[in-house]
Amino acid sequence: MKKVLFVCLGNICRSPLAEGIFRKMVEEAGLQNKIWIDSAGTSSYHIGELPDYRTCQVAEKNGIILSHRARQVRKEDFVEFDYILAADRSNLKHLQNLQNQIPHSKAKLHLMRDWEGKNLEVPDPYYGTMKDFEQGYDLLEKTLKLFLEHLQKELNQTYIVEVEKSNC
């Protein structure tokens, strides 16, 4: 099983939206038993809160119901998750600093949009308008399709290796 953690600053806008979009894609691909998904924030500003109401509106408009409660990234996440994807460079840097303190970290750190090209960020819509949240949805949907393709290839390679081992 592959485990993916989406991270933004407060875990109420970009990362829960990414979690919801990706969860829907994974379910539509029939991979819910092979990919575990969660989200978190680098700050403690909104721990326990539901996603921002605008995030929920954009998700619902696209057939996604968000019930995630905000949480902060934990040291255990770097051992538990295979991928930790940050919304922007600032959060990525924070995650890299945390990861340096974890001797047994296995997580691969990336920006959420790395599958489109390097250093592309998902802009924070928090102080913006509804249009900013909708644009965030569009960016995430596009890039997460590419990330899912990447994970599917990884899962297929893992399956091939497991089958080869069992035939020995």
User: What series of H and E elements makes up the topology?
Assistant: EHEHHEHEH
- Strand % is 5-15%
Q: Under CATH, the topology is which?
A: Rossmann fold
Number of E-type strands: 4
Oligomer: single chain
Poorly predicted regions: 159-164
Relevant CATH superfamily: Response regulator
CATH architecture: 3-Layer(aba) Sandwich
Averaged pLDDT, please? 93
What can you tell me about this protein's structure?
There is one protein chain. With 168 residues, the protein is α/β, with parallel strands linked by helices. The chain has one domain (2-166): Response regulator (Rossmann fold, 3-Layer(aba) Sandwich). Helices cover 45% and strands 13% of the residues. The chain is built from five helices and four strands. A four-stranded parallel sheet has the order 2-1-3-4. Strand 3 (83-86), helix 4 (89-99) and strand 4 form a beta-alpha-beta unit. Helix 1 (14-28) packs across helix 5 and helix 2 (53-61) packs across helix 5 (130-166). Mean pLDDT is 93; it is low at 159-164.
Task: Name a few traits of the molecule.
168 residues, alpha/beta, Rossmann fold, four-stranded parallel beta sheet, 5 helices
Q: In a few lines, what is going on in this structure?
A:
The protein has 168 residues and is an alpha/beta fold. It contains five helices and four strands; from the N terminus they run βαβααβαβα. Helix content is 45%, strand content 13%.
Explain the layout of strands and helices.
Elements lengths: L1 E7 L5 H15 L6 E7 L11 H9 L15 H4 L2 E4 L2 H11 L8 E4 L18 H37 L2
Parallel strand pairs: 1-2, 1-3, 3-4
Helix pairs in contact: 1-5, 2-5
